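Exam prep: given the inputs below (a chain plus uridine-5'-diphosphate-glucuronic acid), describe the expected output before reading on.
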Amino acid sequence: MKICVIGTGYVGLVGSAVFSDWGHSVIGVDNNLQKLEMIQKGEMPIYEPGLKELVSKNLQNGNLRFTSSLEEGVNNAELIFICVGTPMDIDGRADLKYVYQVSEEIAKYMKEPKIISIKSTVPVGTNRKVRDFIKSKTNVDFYSVSVPEFLREGSSIEDMNKTDRTVIGSDNQEAIEKVASLFAHLNAPIVKCDLESAELIKYASNSFLATKISFINEISQICDLSGADVSRVAQGMGLDSRVGSKFLNASIGYGGSCFPKDVQALYRTSSDLGYNFQILGSVMGANKNQKYTFIEKIKKVYGENLSGKTVAVWGLAFKNDTDDIRESVAIEVVRILRGMGAKIKAYDPAAISNAKKVLGDAGIVYTNNKEECLDTSNFLVILTEWKEFITSDINQLKKVETIFDGRNLLDVELMKKENIKYFCIGK
Ligand code: UGA
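Solution:
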């Protein structure tokens, strides 16, 4: 199939690479020339396991190419994916200006019938509005299809290749079948539905997962107060197949470019439609609160004033296996600790250069590895769930007086046995 993917962010770049790897002829389009130059040289603008290799392979075999010309992209494809950003606007709604910008250009350049598919996360009703907008700008026939994306940063290639399901929404059955043929080889269920349901499936899924995290985080508060162990509670709950074990890891709260934005946007969409989505209000409140509970644990040991103290920080990214620090709770925690007067020694396997851009150098030293961080630090905070932080190297851990584990990565029993002062979430 001839495919054009507009936008080379997470969804667009990974999508282009994976579709081309499936044997299709893919043109990726972006108006950021610097970014395109990088990608063409095989340098990835984002850290994503396996992406560099996949892009290089498919650039070489000719299945994949990139251009800054939307006209060229559109006219060399039967299927167009819009994968541009939909950031949060100041009211908490999804800002659709990039979606409309590229839609206008597609209308301008399109010479023959196309399938135009929005992969960006857009509020319910958007596909229909964009369809009407494009219709008002061109006489060429086209079909609107909503194909929301469910990949996670850090495991996006595997997520696309081993998806749990594909969702395809459209008013046109032929267009649905054409898009479905692209995903048929995955042997995963395909949900074929109307545009609005497809749009809502995406928001409902992300909001439900965020709810699951906030729920277990609130359970962790009860565990702290009652002496129960949140990991055992999550294990016991998760074994019920109706509940499921995934996304029940208690933490300092969810972050990233998706959950905070999408929960807020669904909440706004609901109120715009005249409905007060009460649960989502609580999910956001609980998430905001969770990091302060963690900070309270530190205050109980070290007080409100941390001047004279050095804190080792493990993890700055919003989650493991990414360099992304957007809405990272780790960054917020570092800001709070620095605000309390602490000196910070921070390490992250991939996110240091991005973290530097927002945190700067004042009061922070960035280290080359996790061990270096511990030297001369008073206490350690673990903020991101990178695998390399799961350690039982007691000699290293004993370099600090206290450990505050915001991701429950260390073994409580071992910490007890080794007499290490250890605080975590809900245990
Ligand atoms: C999320 C969804 O999981 C994807 O399905 C979706 O496609 C994507 O948003 C999107 O809309 O683009 P992502 O934000 O990349 O993916 O990362 P997640 O793995 O979902 O993690 C989100 C946040 O929740 C992270 O801060 C993570 O540390 C936190 N989390 C996750 C927990 O605190 N506990 C958990 O049990 C799981």
